[in-house]
Structures are given as structure tokens and as C-alpha cells.
């Protein structure tokens, strides 16, 4: 049930909010992403919709009668889950209403004497987590990332036997998910013994890394014991955002066997504050990653005609880095990598269908991470673990030889240093449609608590 292209996606559509008509802006009227924000001196966060450099306050619109029924009740709420829980048809109707209000200069919103009170500048508010996240699952859906990482430690057998049969994931820590812009403290943990022997030690992580990911928020959930079919999976997705799954690689290497990630992942995950709805992404659907003919086909519960024809999303993703020294010398951040979400081996619908296949009940506001998004070229690798590795995809070098990245200041990086700031950006472009963006997902590393 992929969303269809309609009048809200027309490239000719313009808004009477002038900043929404800027070329290559993230939030034209064709986007309309959701967020949650807090104004200056206002402890109560509100639900908003991004338009240009403004945020439209849904509660103000609801108070003045622009919505009706369940949509009005949801818009009055300070909890974005109220919008997420609406039926797919109600969410689509809300999008069409917002598009009409913001494009028609004679609409009830455009001519209202209270119009000014319905908007606030994005620069004047604090963007917070879009909603309280009940559960967080992180997948491992890029075959390029999985193969590269496997090659470092298992050169002769990079992928484990199950990878091409099942979307691999682990249950992450929802309590340590933070909004973009919050500093990330270098974690302490148990570090592995030296290669030449000895005992493990406890102290600050030495191999701190980022992971370029996309996050998907669940809309309406499913009942416990009732799986979601692959054909219906996307009806249960509210929208997508940028995600950085910070990783303590040395801690991870020591702890991950036999039960997988734990403290190396649970100290922090950063998400962008904007959720681009599944409806806004309709023009940017694409065929999923083309599996080699020698690869196994997905089992029937992970396979459908719709998923095979348009299960992918054509999202371009970039990672930028700046060090403290770069910022002091007014040097712009450097681009570390550029990749695309269309390279994922497993689709979003397959992740949702598999997650619920045992009867697990997903709930509105749950977050699914895609796993590190990497491609076949070195320039498209989605983390430092891969970027600084000397191996080539499909042609691994023995061991884990690494070459440091050199910054414009002469500084070198194999992993992140204190003061480094990582910024993730994402956008969609397609011929005949307006570009839309995801905002940014930013985090700066601060020293460990014992430093």
C-alpha cells in the first residue's frame, strides 16, 4: 500500500509562505514534515509542521476550526502520537488540507486575522524529540556495510549464512535517544585486552564512531499476536527521519559475542527533529536493490509484487565532519561520504513485516533504524569503521589495516576525537518533482565523565 502521487506533489505548487518557495530548500510545500517544538520560556512542547523557515502550529489551526473529527482532536494534542495513530486515509486527508491551506492565498488560514499567531520561526524555537519513543529496533539492512564489516573480521566468510534470508536487527535502548544538536558524551566501558595478551580495562572509549542511518516511525500499530503482512506494512509507517547510531567500536568488539550489541550502542542515538511523512515521499519511490541472481529470493511473507516494484526510497544522504580546530579557524565542515538509501538490501516494508511476523506488537511512535547505509564505493561508506579501512568491497585485505583521514587543519582521524561534530543531511530529488529535504542530524562529542 505505497502512497500515491497526487496534487500535493505538483512541482508547480507554490505557497504564500514565501520562504517555502526558495530553490533547493528542505521544506517546500510539497514536503510538510512534522516536528515537536518548544518556544522561548514555554515549557510545554507543541506539534508543528515545517513550511519554509516557519513552523505551522497545528493546535492553533484546530482551535480555529480548520480541522474536524478525529483529525481535530489529534491536532489539538501536544503528543504527535495522536497524529500517528490516525488511519492512513485520515493522515492523507490532513496532508491535503495543509497543502490547500498553505497554497491557496484565499484559504481560511491565509485570510484569517489570527494567521500570525499560527506561525513561529524555526530559528526562534527549540526542536525536541518528535515523540516519546517507546521501543527502538536497529536493523543491519545494507549488504555493503555487512560485507565490509564481515571482511574485517572474517575475510574468508564475510556474511553469515542467515544474512540474505532474514532482516537482521537488535533491540536498542529508547531512553538514550536524543534530538539533533545535543552533545554526545564519550562513553566509558570495558575495553578488550591488548592483542599481545593481558586483561581487559575500564575507561573512555577509544574507537568512537558514527553510523549514517534512516529512522522510520511507526504509525498505527498491530495487536499482540497479529502479524503485519508485507502488503500492509507501509500503511503502518508514519514517516522517515535521519538517524545517527553512535557506536563504541572497541567496547562493541569485546562485548558483542554471543548476544550482540549492548553498552557499545546504548549510550546515545541521535535523531533529526523532522519526520518526513511516507505520503510526501511518494514521488521518490524506486525499485529496491537488485539482488544478484545467485542470491536466494525472500520467503513469501517478505515478498510482494508491490515491494518488488517500488519498495525502495531514493534518498541521498551525506555525512559532514568538523573538528574544534576547524571551527576555531572558520573552516567549513568537510564531506566524509555520500550514499543513497536505495542501496539497502532489505526494504522498509520487509523490516516491518519481519519485525511483526512472530506476533510482536509494534506501537505508534516506535522507531526502526535502518542500520548503517553504505554503498559499493569507498566514498559511500557510512561510518569511520569502513571509511578508514584499507580493504575494498569484495576484495578484502588481510586483517584490519587502516589509513587515517586527513582534515584541512592537518589533523588526522581514524575514529572521532573530542570536539568533533558530525552532521547528517538528506534530501530527495527526481525529475519532474520538487526537491524535499530532511533537515540535519547533528551531534558534537564531549569528553568522557572521567576525563
Description:
- The protein is α+β, with helices and mostly antiparallel strands and 451 residues long.
- The chain has 2 domains: 7-128, Fumarylacetoacetase, N-terminal domain (SH3 type barrels, Roll), CATH 2.30.30.230; 136-446, Fumarylacetoacetase-like, C-terminal domain (Fumarylacetoacetate hydrolase, domain 2), CATH 3.90.850.10.
- It is 18% helix and 25% strand.
- The chain contains 11 helices and 26 strands.
- Strand 23 (405-406) and strand 24 (412-413) form a beta hairpin.
- The longest helix is centred in the first third of the chain and has 16 residues, at 88-103.
- The radius of gyration is 22 Å and the shape is globular.
- The mean pLDDT is 95.
Q: In terms of topology, how is this protein built?
A:
Layout lengths: L33 E6 L6 E6 L2 E4 H6 L5 H8 L4 H4 L3 H16 L15 E3 L3 E4 L7 E4 L3 H11 L15 E3 L5 E3 L4 E2 L2 E4 L9 E4 L3 E2 L2 E7 L18 E8 L2 E2 H7 L7 H4 L2 E3 L4 E2 L7 E2 L18 H6 L1 E2 L2 E7 L1 H5 L5 E7 L7 H9 L10 E3 L14 H4 L17 E2 L5 E2 L7 E8 L7 E11 L5
Parallel strand pairs: 6-22, 8-16, 9-26
Antiparallel strand pairs: 1-2, 1-5, 2-3, 3-4, 6-7, 10-11, 12-15, 13-14, 13-22, 14-16, 14-17, 18-19, 20-21, 20-25, 23-24, 25-26
Amino acid at each position: 500500500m505505497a502512497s500515491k502521487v497526487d496534487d500535493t506533489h505538483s512541482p508547480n505548487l507554490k505557497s504564500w509562505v514565501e520562504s517555502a518557495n526558495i530553490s533547493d530548500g528542505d521544506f517546500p510545500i510539497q514536503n510538510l514534515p512534522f516536528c515537536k517544538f518548544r518556544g522561548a520560556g514555554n515549557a510545554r512542547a507543541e506539534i508543528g509542521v515545517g513550511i519554509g523557515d516557519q513552523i505551522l502550529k497545528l493546535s492553533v489551526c484546530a482551535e480555529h476550526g480548520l480541522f474536524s473529527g478525529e483529525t481535530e482532536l489529534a491536532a489539538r494534542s501536544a503528543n504527535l502520537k495522536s497524529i500517528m495513530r490516525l488511519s492512513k486515509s485520515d493522515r492523507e486527508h490532513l496532508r491535503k488540507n495543509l497543502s490547500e491551506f498553505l497554497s491557496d492565498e484565499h484559504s481560511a488560514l491565509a485570510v484569517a486575522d489570527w494567521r500570525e499567531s499560527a506561525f513561529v520561526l524555526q530559528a526562534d524555537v527549540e526542536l525536541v524529540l518528535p515523540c516519546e519513543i517507546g521501543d527502538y529496533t536497529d536493523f543491519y539492512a545494507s549488504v555493503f556495510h555487512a560485507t565490509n564489516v564481515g571482511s574485517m573480521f572474517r575475510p574468508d566468510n564475510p556474511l553469515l549464512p542467515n544474512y540474505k534470508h532474514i532482516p537482521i536487527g537488535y533491540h536498542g535502548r529508547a531512553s538514550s535517544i536524543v534530538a539533533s544538536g545535543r552533545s554526545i558524551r564519550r562513553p566509558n566501558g570495558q575495553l578488550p585486552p591488548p592483542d599481545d595478551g593481558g586483561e581487559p580495562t575500564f575507561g573512555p572509549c577509544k574507537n568512537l564512531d558514527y553510523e549514517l542511518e534512516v529512522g522510520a516511525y511507526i504509525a498505527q500499530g498491530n495487536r499482540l499476536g497479529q502479524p503485519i503482512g508485507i502488503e500492509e506494512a507501509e500503511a503502518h509507517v508514519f514517516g522517515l527521519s535521519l538517524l545517527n547510531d553512535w557506536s563504541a567500536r572497541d567496547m562493541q568488539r569485546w562485548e558483542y559475542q554471543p548476544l550482540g550489541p549492548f553498552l557499545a550502542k546504548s549510550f546515545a542515538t541521535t535523531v533529526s527533529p523532522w519526520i518526513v511523512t511516507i505520503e510526501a515521499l511518494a514521488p521518490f519511490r524506486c525499485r529496491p536493490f537488485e539482488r544478484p541472481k545467485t542470491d536466494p529470493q525472500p520467503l513469501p511473507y517478505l515478498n510482494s509484487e508491490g515491494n518488488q516494484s517500488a519498495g525502495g526510497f531514493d534518498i541521498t544522504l551525506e555525512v559532514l565532519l568538523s573538528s574544534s580546530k576547524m571551527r576555531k579557524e572558520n573552516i567549513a565542515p568537510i564531506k566524509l561520504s555520500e550514499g543513497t538509501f536505495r542501496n539497502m538490501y532489505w526494504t522498509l516494508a520487509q523490516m516491518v513485516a519481519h519485525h511483526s511476523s512472530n506476533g510482536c506488537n509494534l506501537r505508534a511512535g516506535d522507531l526502526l533504524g535502518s542500520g548503517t547505509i553504505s554503498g559499493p564505493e569507498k566514498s559511500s561508506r557510512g561510518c569511520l569503521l569502513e571509511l578508514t579501512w584499507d580493504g575494498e568491497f569484495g576484495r578484502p585485505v588481510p586483517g584490519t589495516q587502516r589509513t587515517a583521514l586527513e582534515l584541512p587543519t592537518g589533523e588526522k582521524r581514524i575514529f572521532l576525537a573530542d570536539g568533533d561534530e558530525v552532521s547528517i543531511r538528506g534530501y530527495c530529488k527526481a525529475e519532474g518533482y520538487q526537491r524535499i529535504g530532511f533537515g540535519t542530524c547533528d551531534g558534537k562529542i564531549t569528553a568522557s565523565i572521567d576525563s
